[in-house]
Design brief:
It is a single chain. The chain is of the alpha+beta class and about 400 residues long. The chain is built from eleven helices and 14 strands. About 45% of the residues lie in helices and about 20% in strands. Strands 2, 3, 4, 8, 9 and 10 form a six-stranded mixed sheet that branches.
């Protein structure tokens, strides 16, 4: 919702209400209205980028204070001991294994692109691109993280990919005179070379839109979400105010809402019935508290924490209808978000798969990032991609 200083983590649309309460609700509605303009081919200040499942995330460019070219991971922004690599020797000092090799490729070939300033991107492949036949189609494939990407061998991008030494999608540039305080901005205008395939991640919104019926349905969803935000707003602010990761706050059920939704995804469950979701939430919280209380050694401290858990359970009983309204709002945001994702998925030129013990399974792209007034929010089919991301073994370490 807020402007991002350094791009380390993006939030899901439906999670903003858990992060910021009523302000998060307003931000979600504002993003959706911007999307309505974009999908209705009306004037819009926002733009969309395709989110690639690349890895690692590479920060590179000319150091703003010292003038040398460097590469690194998100650790270049560490407050203490930032990991900035201007030579392969420095990479070997700070990293090892596959990650070190990928950073060496990045240093070797990105330094030849004439990059101005500092940018960020996701690595797609180095020497691990290969030719495969999938569903009868000849493809060049690579798997940087969870998703396996494929591009036809006779496609212009495919021909460039097989010649390249490294593939990358650059999506962010930084402004400012000091590395530690640089501000993230969307987009990175970098031209590739024969050795570097730079994949464009701008989503061509002019090639997609809603029909009149779809637009009417989308408008009804937004109006419903606005009404539900009005109903839930004060309670959401209350939940945000009492949640936390330390002290007594970490025993309150509000601190387990996002972990609960993530657990639902890990178990391939969506919110279809609010009453069942409420029951699952209580069980999830109870299991977490049981494990947390087992760690406590002293009787006095355990007695105090048990009282906090008991108080939180009573809090749910006293506010059960408010909790159900919150769950219903979360479900509604997921539904309208999926309407957008389903439209955009048809634009992609690359094939996307996940690798299973029975071979390749077709999947959807990772998702999309909507930019509006310097803020960013992600649209991801969490039941599809996030489930795969939670459960499948990663390709790199």
């Amino acid at each position: 919702m807020s402007n991002i200083k350094q791009l380390k983590h993006l939030e899901h649309l439906e999670d903003e209400m858990l992060n910021y309460g009523v302000d998060g609700c307003k931000a979600a509605v504002s993003f959706l209205k911007e999307l309505r303009n974009m999908l209705g081919h009306q004037e819009s200040s926002g733009f969309m980028q395709t989110k690639w499942d690349g890895a690692p995330s590479v920060i590179c460019g000319v150091h703003p204070e010292h003038g040398y070219f460097f590469v690194g991971t998100k650790s270049v922004f560490n407050k203490t001991e930032p990991k900035i690599c201007a030579s392969e020797a420095k990479i070997d000092m700070l990293y090892s294994g596959d990650l070190a090799e990928k950073l060496k490729f990045s240093l070797r070939y990105f330094s030849e692109l004439g990059i101005k300033g500092v940018i960020q991107g996701d690595l797609l492949f180095t020497s691990d691109i290969k030719r495969e036949t999938i569903n009868g189609e000849q493809l060049y494939t690579f798997r940087p993280n969870t998703i396996t990407y494929g591009i036809p061998v006779d496609h212009d991008i495919g021909k460039k990919a097989i010649r390249a030494k490294v593939g990358v999608v650059f999506h962010t540039h930084y402004t400012g005179g000091e590395l530690a305080t640089m501000q993230a901005r969307a987009g990175a205008n970098v031209i590739g070379s024969q050795d570097v395939l730079v994949v464009n991640n701008d989503t061509p919104m002019d090639r997609v839109g809603f029909s009149r019926t779809e637009m009417g349905n989308f408008d009804r969803h937004i109006s419903k979400i606005e009404r539900m935000c009005q109903i839930c707003g004060d309670f959401l602010d209350e939940l945000v105010g009492v949640q936390g990761k330390t002290g007594d706050a970490k025993f309150h059920i509000s601190s387990f809402l996002k972990p609960f939704f993530n657990d639902q995804i890990r178990n391939a469950r969506n919110i279809n019935n609010v009453d069942e979701a409420m029951y699952d939430l209580l069980n999830f919280y109870g299991d977490k508290m049981e494990k947390e209380l087992e760690k406590i050694k002293t009787v006095a401290n355990k007695t105090k924490k048990c009282a906090l858990v008991y108080s939180s359970q009573n809090y749910v009983v006293d506010n059960v209808y408010k909790f159900k309204a919150m769950l219903a709002l979360y479900k509604e945001l997921q539904a309208v978000k999926q309407m957008v994702i389903d439209k955009l998925d048809h634009l992609e030129e690359f094939r996307t798969y996940v690798q299973t013990d029975k071979g390749y399974k077709v999947t959807t792209p990772e998702g999309y990032v909507l930019h509006k007034d310097g803020s960013m929010i992600k649209f991801v089919n969490r039941l599809e991609f996030a489930y795969n991301n939670f459960t499948l073994q990663k390709q790199w370490r």
